[in-house]
Amino acid sequence: MPRYADMSKAELEAELAQVRARYDEMVARRLSLNMARGKPSAAQLELSLPMLDILDAAADLTAEDGTDCRNYGVLDGIPEAKRLMATLLDDEPENVIVLGNASLTAMYDAMVRLMLFGTQGSTPWAQLPEVKWLCPVPGYDRHFTICEALGIQMIPVPMDENGPIMDEVERLVANDAAVKGIWCVPKYSNPTGATYSDEVVRRLAAMECAAPDFRIFWDNAYAVHHFSDDPAEQDAVLDIAVACRDAGNPDRYLKFGSTSKITFPGAGVAAAAASPANVAEIKRHMNAQAIGHDKLNQLRHARFLNEGAGLAEHMARHGALMEPKFRLVTERLEAELGGAGIATWTNPRGGYFVSFEGPAGTARRIVDLARTAGVVMTGAGATWPYGDDPADSNIRIAPSLPPLEELDEAMDVFTCCVKLAALEQLLGA
Amino acid sequence: MPRYADMSKAELEAELAQVRARYDEMVARRLSLNMARGKPSAAQLELSLPMLDILDAAADLTAEDGTDCRNYGVLDGIPEAKRLMATLLDDEPENVIVLGNASLTAMYDAMVRLMLFGTQGSTPWAQLPEVKWLCPVPGYDRHFTICEALGIQMIPVPMDENGPIMDEVERLVANDAAVKGIWCVPKYSNPTGATYSDEVVRRLAAMECAAPDFRIFWDNAYAVHHFSDDPAEQDAVLDIAVACRDAGNPDRYLKFGSTSKITFPGAGVAAAAASPANVAEIKRHMNAQAIGHDKLNQLRHARFLNEGAGLAEHMARHGALMEPKFRLVTERLEAELGGAGIATWTNPRGGYFVSFEGPAGTARRIVDLARTAGVVMTGAGATWPYGDDPADSNIRIAPSLPPLEELDEAMDVFTCCVKLAALEQLLGA
């Protein structure tokens, strides 16, 4: 296929006619396919079914420290669950607080505490005239929703394959004490799949912040979500806790994670890890909110995943189901769009998403066209704060949920819609 | 036994010597007994063990509406869980939001939302110069902790056997718009065991409040926690939702409840019920905090309790374990203290507590004496805001956890400590 930019008007018109005919055929097939959210597939969920057999009526429901997991108590988690979540969060069990079923809730609640109480003696953020937050883009819409709900002003920061552009981050935090933090998905970032380089992690930890209570929300959602079980094919990320300690900013980070995409989304276990001072502060506030989280589910998870020792093997099974889907996505993108020179996309080694950049001004149109043809994508703009992608070019592709055959059909539709939108734009049609 | 008030000094001194000798014997026995918290006993927890067999790897994990309970989604709960929690909350499923594992968290989060966002268009409470809250006393310490954590000023309101003294409540809410709400445990109240009369419920619903956003936090923690399975021996409470609608204040209440003391505390299902306007508002805010709560646990509970139809039978088994303990407590109190005229106590038909009133100025001493003798009671003062019982007279007795034999020993110690403290006071010893 020649590059669209090199084609004559007549050639473009011929191509448009062909693409439009193909699109009309697709619409007529009345498909119903979904690539909107990063949901595990049924086959992935089946990997964790044996976990449901672990705690039955005859099981020992006592934690190793003697806690009866059926009764009240234990604000920060049973020891075996702390070890599991410490493995996931790349930290020590004593720095871990095991929480409810979702890291999203953990992050929202953490932000609410900062708004209501401040941190380590700072003014509660809700009492400040304004609070600003750095949002590497493209990013995760639910992060942005938390900021928007709490009236926190979001500032987009560009990313590259190594993470946020640190010159820009350092400039923004240096002189404005209203800039209180940054969202980070350090490994297999949502949606680009980028993994932060060691230099980016070190600069985040060490940068001079005008706000002494600046906080890095370190959402390590895809910490163990590799496509390959070969460590050489897996991304690694420097531990932000170590980097912050080394830089003399030991309280700057809050780590979050969960088993949502390891066992069952919504029925998993979430956790936070933080510095000793932050752990103590969080537990003091949490004491008014909770007696303890679901210890039976903690025990179930700890035993199923062998307190973290079983994570790699279990995640290899997930990876084996994910890799062919991501391969199919990039192969189809390359085959259909590689020559046209109208789009770029990422090619991650883990996580849940491919980030797609189409021609400026076409993302909404592409997503609309796909919806009309029965393929639901993540809404255009979702990867930017306030749903506002100024270039209207970024689309998040979430290939995990559909079976391979459906994914193939969906990519047919998607690539056709990209061409159609690009041609319409080029021809003013 | 003669009333202490009728005894001569010599008689009191003889009694003190005898009681003190008995107390010293008890201390020497180095007991380790706990009546501090309203925790179900091991025998009660065993009643729900069959629930752990309901969802195994071979079970159908699909909700009736087709939702795969293993995956993301469903912010407000699966239909069968809504029906279960509606039965518990005496409401309609469409007014129910199924939440996480604890009503305490549900109440804290609800209060946080009022602080950050206000309600139905009112000013966020955190932006007001002061927020006051009515606390019927004696009451539940964890309610008070929520207010204290959020800087809400607590105003104690006396209770009698019909609930809070409504003349006082009406006076306090009528002219002070800073008074934003009231804690209510309407049935088998913590700790008095009182159940609100229909008149109290109607007056709460209808009273003129200076604050248009006044909210009743209706913590129906013991809604089905009767000691007898005979409806004639069970307390009933008027539905606050109906009363508020009838009074033209349909948005005044928020109902809370959970299965904590029905199945497994900490591993149960909590829920809120509210007016349609409040449900919509809560869901709008929750959308930033959660994708959905643990649907597998919802399904497990809904099936085990037959969506509410199995509640009465299941709770009758709890009641059969609780009734002998409460009978023992009141019998031992009557036998040991009935004649001395130094104390009163409640005699509830359900719930988890007996409220004990000793001589003014002795509660802390009694609890200290008991602790020294190896019996841990709820801390004196805990039943009052800020831990400050101005009369230093109220003690919460929580008989649910210890087996009957241990409870008998613990009541031996407790009644001995009451007499010792009373005699010390009378004699200035």
From TrEMBL, chains A, B:
GO terms for molecular function: transaminase activity. It holds the Pfam family Asp_aminotransf. Keywords: Aminotransferase, Transferase. This is Aminotransferase class I/II-fold pyridoxal phosphate-dependent enzyme. It comes from Adlercreutzia wanghongyangiae.
